[in-house]
Design a protein that fits this description.
Oligomer: heteropentamer
Largest sheet of chain E: 2 strands, antiparallel
Number of strands of chain E: 2
Helix content of chain A: over 70%
Strand content of chain E: under 5%
Number of strands of chain A: 0
Largest sheet of chain A: none
Strand order of the largest sheet of chain E: 1-2
Chains: A mainly alpha, B mainly alpha, C mainly alpha, D mainly alpha, E mainly alpha
Chain lengths: ~100, ~525, ~190, ~525, ~675
């Protein structure tokens, strides 16, 4: 399988994630979709790293995973906080700030 | 850090701790602050922690100055310490210090048990300074995240305020999308060039047809998007007003200033160093974005009733101005941008500190009408606000004028005269919302009785949690704060205002400061 | 992940996705990354998800809701899909339209040969890189985890005036996080908080 | 003579000192300025203005009409990075405008001292700041410095009008005014920077904004043209010229009369001065290119302003629109692009300032006597009990309509002669403005002073202080009427030098004057 | 002292007088003391003496050195313009200052009594002095700038004096009307100056004339610019001298006090146009076209004014129209080259017309302010002195020998005839005018003094001077508000006030005898005296054709007497009820309407100029300013900006997913742009 296929997959994954962010209203799912986007990027990184035969991509990928974990942590924290506040778990309900 | 020390002696690269020292100071400091915040008593948390964090910032400042006009790449080319980095560090640290002062008594700090609050603050600053001197994409990305993640938290710290949480979540979601975009862009550039070092990228791009390769260009596009997001450039600005308004005011002040600094710093480095050979293709695009940003920001700020929101839009506009310096990608442009960043710090700090003070004094929060009669009651607050408004509008004898002057100068001599014109048109529009603020302070009398919120168009968010009943002990914990004089806030306001005027009349020192910032680049 | 109505299923879908991704990584001879992928992502993080989903009760957004949400939401759905498609297409154009012939090859490893290619992707290789060229990134990343932990605590900690039942739910995930947290301080701090 | 910086900063300093003194002194500076007792800030301000006036007179006397173009030069590097100099100098163009400025500010402060002001410290501080800014704009010999002062000028007035103006619509009118005028100024800022940058790029040297240096670095016609338009926008708005006078009615209505005196008397001149001192020498090609446009705008201002002036019933607005017309004449003279027109324009700037300020002050006095209203329909028959006021008013009115024998007439004579040379038709049409001027000036005088006694009119003679405000200005008017040459021979050389480039370029157009003796001195006098 | 020194003195005295009165008006007091009046009169009299001095000095010089220029200081000489503060003393100007100061002295004297008790007494005399100063400045000016200055000053003075009783709306409106029309004249003058300056490059009179004679305008005649310039100068002259179509202000100017009418609007100011043309003769002779224009307009005016004079009933207006027509003679004369004759007529006219006005003032006093002829009658016995003066003035005006008007008028017509060609038409017009003059003059006299005495007349015979119960404005009958003095609370008539009698007497002597100084074939005082000023003028030579001369004199006499007889037939023997004149009026109703409405000139100007301009002004005020300036320019821009703001804020919907979507949209957009770069 040539690198191109991996790249194609990564692009698709990335876009799927984006779509998810745009369409889903449950913050949990939105977070998941963010994960998807990051993973898409990761795949691309690994693929390129393979293509060039150096490890930079992989390193970046690892960092990305860390980052993803952190974001998840924060995100979930917020969700919990929101839940504690008895606010609806729905990003569309959070629109006090506008205009 | 322990690991760092551990690995240092085995076959790791030579690490220039001197060069790294400010960063180390910040990171270590944040840990210290964190720990200090944990050991108990209220007094320590409320007073010692901020003091300590100030100390940390002071240390970092000292180290930065110690490093002055060093020119080196450290940690095997991950970072570059040069004038740009150092100057930006200065600005960042100053901004951080102001924030600490503003947050001294703030609700947010208490809510987030001071230690954590300041630790997050410091680490975010660390991320920024990392970003400012990042030299390869990995460091760039890490720095970006180290900047953002604490901010996500900080925005949400006033958990009792729904707005705060909301802003936090929004920031998180949209921000993550932004960084994912950036990441993908980085990935593509890596794919195109096969390296993560800026210098390597520049080298690779400068050779052959790679500069016009779709892969590269798409990567650049995604990077533009991602960074524009951080710098809140239209059309990626949308999170800005909501987050700024929702976040606790000290945090807003912090974000307003420092994220701009970091984002534009990395803009300068990444685009004017790594991607310089694709400038022909991204120059016009970024210029267009800048123009859009200027217009959108200024237009959006009109007829806002909340000061913070208004300032948020205005910061969007300012970002547009500063982009102009990036676009031209000349030494002059770099200098102008950095100069404006420095000036921007003073202007915004003055404004935000006044807002902080007002929020604690009145229940009218940050609404513009809330400022009515301020000139008569609290001239010491009114003057800094006035100065900062005039400066943001770019009136002569204020630093803002100098900044605009320099930017337009750069734009024109870079061949982007039309952008310069857009800048002035933007500041024309901006008069439409800066002047009313001054008018409110000096030309309107305070409404006779405070207890008539319906007299106001929109009472701003109140520091005391109105929803989900703040408990009684919390309230009496708040009670002494609300009416207490705030020497540190006043200090910040007056200092910033004074600096704005001073650098408006005697800008030469600032010019000398930023003189060398472009020297690191291969620009003419 | 995107289409499933129930967040819980979404999580599971994501897990499967991650695993398959790990497989792809293996195919790309990135053993260590693949491993991390499986352990950390599919393991820890997703467990974290599961807990939270269970905690806040991942109620599906029902059809009725969707109708109530009205045209805006649906319009956004459509628009979102279109946009995503557009981006996807652009990315594909960019990725596949590139002039680099290498992407049609099977990657450098096979061509270059030599010692480098043999060690490529092994933990040693990665660790080597991590401790030399990307030392800084590595350190900072670890610090990032610490900060994230702190942030999570700050956000989810119990506070006066807010009723809450067990906050344990939140802290366990943090513990789960810890094992792979390179920053040892993160552990301590996290603990002391809990 | 002391260096110019003293003249420039004395007013501001006095403003600050007055404020400080008042705040430390027991009286707190909030004493009423009325009935003889002076408030500390007011007194300080008066001292400052008088000092400035004395200095300015000194410079006028000391001016050597045969001397170098720039006299009493102060030249410090302000911002080396941007090549901006802090360069002040006396030229034949600004020497009398300085006198005008200081004089009007002095009398305005004197007038202001007759009233009790809320927050007097702030009031006088802004007032003095304004004077310094205006003086700076006139004195600046560096483009960037000029622009800075030009923009800065507006801010004190923003506070003055917004803080002490007259309801209704004080704040709204103020913001409208400031934005409207600043819009022009900001355009000019861009244009000015572009001038410096492009000029230095063509010159290949380090960027500079010093005017004399810029003269040596001509711009390409293309860039000259848009830059010219931007500058014109700023100056035309400031004047104001039709159709950019939208801010004027509200603004004039809102201003306190003392502020209005200086605003209308001095600030409008800065625009005209800018044309003469900056635009003509720097952008000659563009000037010639847009000459007709500018002339037409000026003409429109004359006619429109006059029409409005004799249709209005608000005395202030009559004065306001009359100055629109007058500044139309001045613009006309400048863009006749020959030394007669320019010379006349310069003289007319001084004259108009001298005339409109007392006119407005008198309007204030009238409204005191007409039950606070400034509507001429409320007035009438005031002359009988106030013969002195009536005669002073009469002199002012006659000077306003530029009756021959007044210095205003000499100004108009030269202006129209210049236009006559340049564009016959426009000159002929412009004369209708002269006729209409007589109509509205006399209409104002008659409606206020003559006819039956107005409904709420209660006439009385002017007080000694009022006289003290009016008489000095009138004395100057009379003096210039008798001896305009006093002003003319000082300004002649500078004027010729400044219009020289444009005049030579436009010379090709006016062939019908080549044979005329007396003017078209080949080469003019350029230093 | 040289002639010019006297010239400066002539200027100085009235100025000093004016200032003295103006500054010291409080001490001089209002109506109570007459100090102001005496000061003013004295000042003018001193000026008169100084003019005599100038006359003597100038006569002492050699004839070709009788044009002396003296400059005090450099008024405005820059960028090619040279204007000195200079006067030109030559026979012409000396002649003028003699007439002006002489007549003015008498009228000042007259005013002392006439204005007695008026609360504006001091103000009146300072105005009057100011006027005299301006008039002298006008005639002494040595260059165009000063000429124009004096020109405008007399306009201002006339404005001030017309609206002297400024509580009368009629007076103020008349004043502004006069002033504006005069400004039109000034504009014409200035423009004309430009046209001339354009070629000569100098403003000084003598230099200008020299340049003109040496071909600054080219050597042919009727050079375009020159004709234009001269015609524009004529505009100035017409405005000042109330020639058609700029004459409408003169009748209204009768709102002023009667002495003012007699001084300014009869004797001096209105003749400035004549002086101007005479002064500019070197230019006009190079532009015959302009001369013809002047001549025709003059002739027209004298006819039209005469016809109007036939029908007016306001005694002052009748005299005003006669003034118009007399000035028509002068303008015609100087335009056809009868300079000496024109100026001669100017002098004689000054005498008898001033006299007539004074008489009219006296009658008005007797009528208690009433001016309408319809209310007068039978004052013959009541006011013998006034009657006598009227008769003398009337005879002089109608040109009955040997009164002064006879010689001067016929002199003009004679020269006109000698120009030959179409000028004969002017000649005929002149004599028709003379006939009309006789008629309306004596119509006025007969209706005022003959017939049944009216109540006031009887009262006066009874030895008591009538006073109106309430002072009222004769123009519109509205009641005066009395706190400002109005035509004296105590009316003055010549029979009772010595100063008035003295003044009228002296003028009467002048009216009778002034003609004798230049009798055809007997003596040529005026001709000889003025010759130096007109040296080199081809038209300036004594007349030759005796036959024509005799015919003219005879014709003049006959027409005058016929006119008087006709007037007597109509208004004396025609019976008390004026059936005769009424019958004629009915017979020629349309003509009558035309005349009595003053040929509808006011209506014409009103419709053509005033209304349109005012309408435009109201449009600009009401509509244009709001719609265009405010709504379109200001509102438009702000509207756009506001709309943009609304849009931006709408985009800020608060839906985080929208934000994400917009973000992605941006990404897509930017990406697209970059991909297009490929």
């Amino acid at each position: 399988m040539s690198i191109a296929w991996y790249l194609a997959v990564s692009a698709i994954v990335f876009s799927l994630g984006a779509i998810g962010v745009m369409t889903r209203r449950n913050p949990l799912v939105v977070l998941l979709c963010l994960e998807l986007m990051l993973n898409g990027a990761n795949l691309a990184l690994i693929a390129f790293s393979r293509m060039w035969g150096n490890g930079d991509g992989q390193i970046l990928a690892i960092v990305v995973m860390t980052v993803a974990a952190c974001e998840v942590c924060i995100g979930l924290g917020m969700i919990v906080a929101i839940y504690r506040r008895r606010l609806p778990i729905d990003v569309d309900e959070l629109r006090e700030l506008q205009g | 850090m322990t690991t760092l020390l551990a690995t240092a002696h085995l076959k790791g690269p030579h690490i220039d701790f001197a060069g790294l020292s400010p960063l180390i100071a910040l990171l270590g400091g944040s840990v210290l602050v964190l720990i200090l915040g944990l050991l108990g008593s209220r007094w320590i948390r409320a007073q010692a922690v901020p003091t300590l964090s100030l100390g940390v910032l002071g240390a970092a400042l000292g180290l930065t100055i110690w490093q002055w006009n060093a020119q080196k790449s450290i940690v095997s080319g991950a970072l570059r310490i040069d004038d740009l980095a150092l100057v930006l560090n200065l600005v960042l640290i100053a901004g951080g210090a102001c924030t600490v002062l503003l947050a001294w008594r703030s609700l947010a700090a208490r809510e987030a048990a001071h230690g954590e609050f300041h630790a997050l603050l410091l680490s975010s600053i660390a991320g920024m300074s990392l970003l400012a001197c990042a030299q390869n994409t990995v460091a760039l990305f890490v720095g970006l995240e180290l900047l953002s993640i604490p901010l996500y938290v900080l925005c949400a710290t006033e958990l009792r305020r729904e707005h705060s949480l909301e802003s936090g979540l929004k920031y998180l979601i949209v921000g993550s999308v932004g960084s994912a975009t950036l990441l993908y862009g980085l990935a593509m550039i890596y794919g195109a060039t096969g390296t993560t070092d800026f210098s390597g990228i520049a080298q690779a791009l400068s050779s052959g047809s790679l500069a016009t390769d779709p892969l590269t260009l798409a990567g650049v596009a995604l990077c533009v998007a991602g960074l524009c997001f951080k710098a809140s450039v239209a059309p990626f600005h949308q999170w800005t007003p909501d987050v700024y308004e929702g976040a606790p005011t000290p945090v807003t002040a912090f974000m307003a200033v420092t994220t701009k600094v970091a984002a534009l710093g990395v803009f300068l480095r990444f685009f004017d160093v790594a991607l310089i050979s694709t400038q022909v293709s991204w120059g016009p695009a970024v210029a267009a974005l800048a123009a859009i940003t200027i217009v959108v920001g200024n237009v959006g700020a009109l007829s806002q009733s909340s000061l913070k929101r208004m300032l948020a839009y205005s910061s969007v506009a300012q970002a547009g101005y500063m982009l102009a310096g990036v676009v031209v990608s000349t030494q002059l442009g770099v200098k102008a941008t950095v100069f404006y960043l420095a000036v921007y710090l003073f202007m915004n700090m003055a404004a935000f500190s006044v807002i902080v003070a007002r929020e604690r004094e009145t229940d009218r929060g940050d609404s513009i009408q809330g400022l009515a009669g301020l000139g008569r009651e609290r001239p010491l607050l009114a003057w800094p606000m006035t100065i900062s408004m005039l400066a943001l509008a770019g009136i002569p004898a204020t630093a803002g004028f100098m900044g605009k002057f320099y930017l337009i100068d750069a734009a024109v001599s870079g061949g982007y005269t039309w952008l310069g014109v857009v800048i002035v048109i933007g500041s024309m529009i901006s008069l439409g919302y800066y002047l009313p603020v001054i008018a409110a302070m000096w030309m309107r009398e305070a409404p006779a009785s405070e207890d008539e919120p319906q007299a106001l168009a929109s009472p701003g968010p109140s520091p005391v949690p109105v929803l989900a009943g703040g408990s009684t002990e919390l309230d009496e914990e708040l009670a002494p704060e609300t009416s207490s004089p705030q020497p540190e806030v006043l200090l910040v306001a007056v200092l910033a205002g004074a600096a704005t005027i001073f650098f408006g009349i005697v800008p030469q020192p600032l010019f000398n400061l930023v003189h060398g910032v472009g020297s690191g680049f291969g620009l003419f | 992940v995107v289409v499933l109505r129930n967040p819980f299923y979404s999580v599971l879908a994501l897990v499967s996705h991650l695993v398959s991704l790990a497989v792809l990584f293996l195919l790309l001879r990135a053993e260590f990354v693949a491993a991390v992928q499986v352990v950390v992502y599919a393991g820890a993080v997703m467990v974290l998800y599961v807990f939270v989903v269970a905690y806040v009760g991942g109620e599906a957004d029902s059809i009725g809701e969707r109708l109530r949400r009205g045209a805006a939401g649906s319009g956004l759905r459509l628009g979102g899909a279109i946009l995503g498609g557009a981006v996807c297409i652009e990315l594909l154009i960019a990725l596949l339209g590139t002039g680099l012939e290498a992407i049609n090859g099977y990657g450098a490893g096979y061509r270059v040969g030599g010692p480098e290619s043999r060690t490529y992707g092994t933990p040693a290789f990665i660790g080597n890189l991590l401790l030399t060229r990307f030392l800084l990134a590595f350190e900072v990343a670890s610090f990032l985890l610490l900060i994230a932990a702190v942030g999570g605590v700050v956000l989810a900690r119990r506070r006066g005036g807010l009723e809450d039942e067990d906050e344990r739910e939140l802290l366990t995930p943090l513990d789960l996080l810890r094992p792979r947290g390179t920053g040892t301080m993160a552990e301590g701090v996290g603990r002391r908080h809990s | 003579m002391p260096p110019l910086s003293i003249l420039l900063w004395v007013p501001a300093a006095c403003g600050v000192l007055g404020a400080l003194a008042a705040s430390v002194s027991s009286r707190g500076g909030s004493e009423p300025g009325s009935d003889g007792t002076w408030s500390i800030p007011g007194a300080a301000a008066l001292l400052g203005t008088l000092a400035a006036l004395a200095l300015a007179l000194g410079y006028i006397v000391d001016y050597k009409s045969g001397g170098p173009a720039l006299q009493h030069v102060t030249d410090e590097v302000w911002i080396s990075t941007l090549g901006i100099h802090y360069k002040l100098a006396i030229t034949g163009l600004n020497v009398f405008l300085l006198g005008l400025t200081t004089l009007l500010f002095a009398v305005a402060v004197l007038a202001a001292n007759m009233r009790e002001w809320d927050r007097p410290r702030l009031f006088y501080f802004h007032f003095m700041l304004a004077e310094s800014a205006v003086l700076g704009a006139f004195l600046a010999q560096d483009l960037a410095l000029f622009v800075s002062f030009f923009d800065l000028m507006l801010i004190p007035f923003y506070f003055l009008i917004g803080g002490w103006g007259r309801e209704p619509g004080r704040v709204k009118a103020t913001i409208k005014l400031v934005i409207y005028t600043l819009v022009g100024s900001l355009l000019m800022l861009a244009a000015a920077i572009a001038t410096g940058v492009l000029a230095s790029q063509q010159g290949g040297g380090h960027i500079t904004f010093v005017l004399t240096a810029l003269h040596a670095l001509p711009l390409s016609t293309g860039s000259q043209e848009w830059i010219f338009l931007f500058f014109a926008a700023a100056f035309l708005v400031k004047m104001p010229a039709f159709p950019l006078h939208g801010w004027m009615p509200d603004g004039y209505r809102a201003m306190p009369i003392e502020v209005l005196m200086v605003f209308s008397g001095v600030l409008s001149k800065v625009g005209a001065y800018g044309f003469l001192a900056i635009v003509l020498p720097l952008f000659p090609q563009a000037t010639v290119h847009f000459q007709t446009l500018m002339l037409v705008i000026a003409l429109a201002s004359i006619i429109y302003g006059s029409l409005q002036a004799f249709s209005q019933t608000d005395a202030r607005l009559i004065a306001g629109y009359s100055s629109v017309a007058q500044l139309g004449f001045i613009t006309l003279g400048i863009f006749s692009l020959n030394s007669q027109g320019a010379q006349g324009a310069l003289l007319q700037m001084v004259n108009h300032g001298l005339v409109v300020a007392p006119l407005l002050f008198i309007v204030g006095l009238l409204s005191q006597r007409a039950g606070g209203s400034e509507d001429v329909r409320e007035m009438g028959g005031l002359a009988f009990r106030a013969p002195v006021l009536a005669s002073l008013f009469l002199v002012v009115a006659l000077a306003t309509l530029a009756i021959p024998g007044s210095s205003n007439f000499v100004g108009e004579f030269l202006i129209l002669l210049g236009v006559f040379k340049a564009k016959l038709v426009i000159a002929v049409v412009a004369f209708s403005g002269v006729v209409m001027a007589s109509v509205y000036a006399l209409r104002l005088f008659i409606r206020a002073m003559h006819n039956r006694v107005g409904p709420s009119a209660d006439s009385r003679e002017i007080s000694f202080r009022d006289g003290a405000v009016l008489v000095p200005v009138l004395a100057v008017i009379v003096f210039l009427a008798l001896y305009p040459q006093f002003a003319l021979h000082r300004s002649e050389r500078s004027v010729k030098a400044n219009v020289f480039a444009a005049e030579r370029l436009s010379r090709t157009r006016l062939t019908l004057f080549e044979n005329a003796t007396g003017y078209v001195q080949p080469g003019g006098v350029i230093k | 002292m040289s002639a010019t020194t006297y010239g400066w003195l002539v200027l100085a005295f009235p100025l000093v007088g004016m200032l003295a009165i103006a500054l010291g008006f409080r001490r001089l007091g209002g109506g109570s003391s007459k100090a102001a009046g005496w000061i003013a009169t004295g000042a003018i009299f001193l000026a008169f003496l100084a003019s005599l001095g100038a006359l003597i000095k100038i006569q002492g010089l050699a004839p070709d050195h009788r044009q002396v220029v003296s400059s005090l200081w450099n008024y405005a000489s820059t960028v090619g313009v040279n204007a000195q503060m200079a006067i030109l003393v030559d026979p012409l100007s000396v002649f003028m200052i003699l007439v002006v100061t002489g007549v003015s002295t008498l009228i000042h004297l007259y005013s002392i009594s006439y204005m007695d008790g008026d609360r504006g007494f001091a103000r009146y005399f300072s105005y009057l002095n100011f006027f005299v100063f301006s008039m002298l400045l006008l005639v002494l000016a040595g260059n165009f700038v000063l000429l124009i200055a004096g020109w405008a000053f007399v306009g201002a003075a006339s404005y001030l004096l017309i609206s002297f009783w400024y509580r009368r709306t009629t007076a103020t409106s008349a004043g502004i009307k006069a002033f504006v029309i005069n400004v039109v004249g000034d504009v014409g003058l200035v423009l004309g100056t430009y046209f001339i300056f354009k070629h000569t490059g100098t403003l000084d009179f003598l230099k200008t004339f020299h340049a003109a004679s040496t071909g600054a305008f080219g050597h042919g005649k009727d050079e375009g610019d020159l004709v234009a310039g001269c015609c524009l100068l004529l505009v100035g002259a017409f405005a000042k001298s109330a020639q058609i179509p700029l004459h409408t202000w003169l009748p209204d100017a009768m709102e002023g006090p009667t002495p003012v009418s007699s001084l300014i609007h009869a004797a001096t100011m209105v003749t400035a146009g004549v002086y101007l043309i005479a002064r500019m003769h070197p230019l006009f002779e190079l532009a015959p076209a302009a001369q013809d224009v002047g001549a025709v307009v003059g002739a027209t005016t004298l006819l039209v004014a005469g016809t109007i004079g036939l029908t007016q009933t306001d005694i002052k207006r009748v005299i005003a129209y006669s003034t118009m027509s007399q000035i028509g003679y002068m303008i015609m004369g100087v335009s056809v080259g009868a300079y000496a004759a024109g100026l001669f007529h100017l002098m004689t006219h000054a005498f008898f017309k001033a006299l007539l006005f004074m008489g009219a003032g006296s009658i008005i006093g007797a009528m208690g302010g009433e001016q309408s002829l319809n209310k007068m009658g039978g004052f013959r016995k009541a006011m013998p002195f006034t009657y006598a003066c009227f008769i003398i003035g009337g005879l002089a005006l109608s040109g009955v020998p040997p009164f002064s008007g006879f010689f001067s008028k016929d002199d003009i017509l004679l020269v006109t005839a000698e120009r030959g060609g179409w000028h004969w038409a002017l000649y005929v017009a002149g004599y028709i005018g003379a006939f009309l003059t006789a008629i309306y003059t004596f119509r006025m006299i007969f209706r005022a003094f003959h017939g049944e005495p009216v109540a006031e007349a009887r009262e006066l015979e009874g030895g008591h001077l009538h006073h109106a119960p309430v002072p009222f404005n004769p123009a519109n009958g509205e009641e005066e508000d009395t706190d400002v003095g109005f035509p004296g609370p105590n009316h003055a008539i010549a029979e009772r006030a010595l100063p008035m009698r003295v003044a009228m007497g002296l003028l009467a002597v002048g009216a009778v005898g002034a003609g004798l100084i230049q009798i055809p074939k007997v003596d040529f005082v005026i001709d000889d005296f003025l010759r130096p000023s007109f040296a080199g003028s081809p038209l300036y030579e004594p007349h030759t054709k005796d036959g024509l001369l005799i015919f003219g004199l005879g014709l003049g006499t006959v027409l005058a007497l016929l006119g008087i007889a006709l007037a007597h037939r109509l208004w004396v023997t025609g019976g008390r009820e004026l059936q005769a004149s009424t019958a004629i009026r009915e017979r020629f109703r349309p003509a009558y309407e035309l005349f009595v409405n003053k040929w509808y000139f006011d209506e014409l100007i009103d419709a053509l100029v005033v209304r349109p301009v005012a309408a435009t002004g109201m449009f600009a005020l009401g509509t244009f300013e709001r719609v265009f300036v405010d709504e379109t320019l200001v509102g438009g821009t702000t509207g756009i900006v506001r709309a943009g703001s609304a849009a931006v804020r709408a985009a800020q919907s608060g839906f985080v997913r929208y934000y994400a979507a917009l973000l992605v949209l941006g990404v897509a957009g930017v990406g697209l742009y970059f991909l297009l770069q490929v």
